[in-house]
Amino acid sequence: MASGWRRTVGNVQSLISNSMGGLRGGPNIASWVVAGTLAYYLWVKPARDLKREQEERIAIAAATAASDPYRYVEKRKPIPDPQETGLIYGNKNNLKKTED
């Protein structure tokens, strides 16, 4: 019974070492350190920096809004005026009628 248990543990260890590329000892640890360091600087650190920068922007925006609650904030784009003169009123198109 004990030998079956030891064989199972040995098979699991063999499976894990083979899945790591078959390296044993120092080279295996060194390769994992290099891979972990690269992963940190290529993926984890930029994601954390971006998140921290976004939080700082939100905090700055909240602080400015709290300091002046009555300031004007444009919430939508202005609607362009379709008239030729650019005026909202008074476009009679007199120039075109007199030329004809």
Automatic annotation (TrEMBL):
Region (Disordered) location: 76-100
PANTHER family: SUBTILISIN-LIKE PROTEASE
TM segment ranges: 25-44
Domain of life, per lineage: Eukaryota
Organism from which the protein derives: Kingdonia uniflora
Keyword list, A-Z: Membrane, Transmembrane, Transmembrane helix
Protein name as annotated: Uncharacterized protein
